UniProtKB/TrEMBL annotation:
Keywords: ATP-binding, Nucleotide-binding, Transport. This is Putative spermidine/putrescine transport system ATP-binding protein. GO terms for molecular function: ATP binding; ATP hydrolysis activity; transmembrane transporter activity. PROSITE patterns: ABC_TRANSPORTER_1, ABC_TRANSPORTER_2. GO terms for biological process: putrescine transport. The keyword ATP-binding applies. InterPro entries: AAA+_ATPase, ABC_SmlMolc_Importer, ABC_transporter-like_ATP-bd, ABC_transporter-like_CS, Mo/tungstate-bd_C_term_dom, P-loop_NTPase, Transp-assoc_OB_typ2. It comes from Celeribacter neptunius. The keyword DNA-binding does not apply. Residues 4-234 form the ABC transporter domain.
Length: 355
């Protein structure tokens, strides 16, 4: 059982404010991802959790108690970084058992626990190799095993896949998620890779310049972003200016967009005639014959045939452009007039300026 509550965390490096009030929570057994571009404060947040940095304000509660006065080595957290920092002169088994030796565990206990965790991370057979004699993916699994063998209360992972190639990244990613779920360990995971965050997490904190722009499930972050920054960072997105915003129910609005009057869901609390824009993910748009069920009509600007699909860009009459993906059997090209049907249940209205 480990719950974590990060409350209004602030951290400055000299006069630079790296964390400007970060708040988020992790329930027992959840994997919470800190997602955002370089420099937004992900690693600083993780380092404050690990106890490597002392925050200037705010608090971190673990199971309801502040840990700010607990030194890093007494927090009982497992930490895995992108550079695995294995001891080069120790074998794989010695690297994994290092923390247990520091704890002065018996030789028998160390052997059993190292053996068990090696099996868990699928390293059996590599006990006597040196780090330079195994692959990058295997080295990262040693780093993971070295953290897990100590049965940490919390697992902290900072871009653990960054140094691996695409295939290995996939493999180690699923291994981490499997192990984390099987063991029910609460974990924080830092990445700037949106698809990694979406695939692995129970909750995602999208960070922006030292703050959390949105903290929600991957689905919510993608489908119901709080602002354009979040929508942009989590996948392909089209934005159209929305006029005549009129609330019709809580979180529901009628709007005029690109010549059409439609009713859509959106960020709650938008006022009448608020400056707003409509988010349309490419997969919620379908190319149709003009006059069919078209919500919008427009002119094809360009269309690329990619084998399995067509990628089209369409100009709308009142300005604005839409990118969409169509099945490859559509015979459309630049200059054609087309209709675009929108899955309105997946359209999302957001304020034009971030709250
Ligand atoms: N030790 C330090 N001294 C001074 N400034 C620092 C220090 N560590 C980080 N910073 C600055 O604080 C900000 C946040 O850094 P942080 O490493 O937390 O970002 P990040 O989101 O993890 O980025 P990345 O993905 O590049 O690792 C950055 O602008 C960085 O330059």
């Amino acid at each position: 059982m480990t719950t974590v509550e990060v409350k209004n965390l602030r951290k400055s490096y000299d006069d630079f404010l790296a964390l400007d009030g970060v708040s988020l929570t992790a329930e027992t057994g959840q994997l919470v991802t800190l997602l955002g571009p370089s420099g937004c404060g992900k690693s600083t947040t993780l380092r404050c959790l690990a106890g490597f940095h002392e925050p200037n304000g705010g608090d971190i509660l673990v199971d309801g108690e502040s840990i700010l006065n607990v030194p890093s080595n007494r927090r009982k957290f497992g930490v895995v970084f992108q550079n695995y920092a294995l001891f080069p002169h120790m074998t794989v088994a010695e690297n994994i058992g290092y923390g247990l030796r520091l704890q002065k565990r018996s030789k028998g206990e160390i052997e059993t626990r190292v053996f068990d965790v090696m099996k868990l991370v699928r390293l059996t057979g590599l006990e006597d190799r040196l780090p330079r004699e195994i692959s990058g993916g295997q080295q990262q699994r040693v780093a993971l095993a070295r953290a897990l063998v100590l049965k940490p209360r919390l697992l902290l992972l900072d871009e653990p896949l960054a140094n691996l190639d695409a295939r290995l990244r996939d493999e180690v990613r699923w291994l981490i998620r499997d192990l984390q779920q099987q063991s029910g360990i609460t974990a924080f995971y830092v990445t700037h890779d949106q698809s990694e965050a979406m695939a692995m997490s129970d909750m995602v904190a999208v960070m922006k310049a030292g703050r959390v722009a949105q903290f929600a499930t991957p689905r919510e972050i993608y489908q119901k972003p709080s602002e354009r920054y979040v929508a942009d960072f989590t996948g392909e997105a089209n934005f159209l200016t929305a006029q005549r915003v009129q609330p019709v129910a809580e979180g529901r609005y009628s709007v005029h967009v690109a010549g059409a009057d439609i009713e859509v869901e959106g960020v709650p609390g938008l006022l009448k005639n608020a400056a707003a824009e409509l988010l349309l993910r490419p997969e919620s748009l379908t190319l149709v014959t003009t006059g069919d069920t078209a919500t919008f009509e427009g002119e094809v600007i360009k269309c690329a045939f990619l084998g399995a699909s067509l990628h089209c860009e369409i100009a709308l009459p009142e300005g604005g452009r839409l990118k969409l993906t169509a099945p490859p059997n559509h015979e459309v090209g630049a200059g054609d007039r087309v209709g675009i049907a929108i899955d309105l249940s997946h359209a999302w209205l957001m304020p034009e300026v971030a709250p």
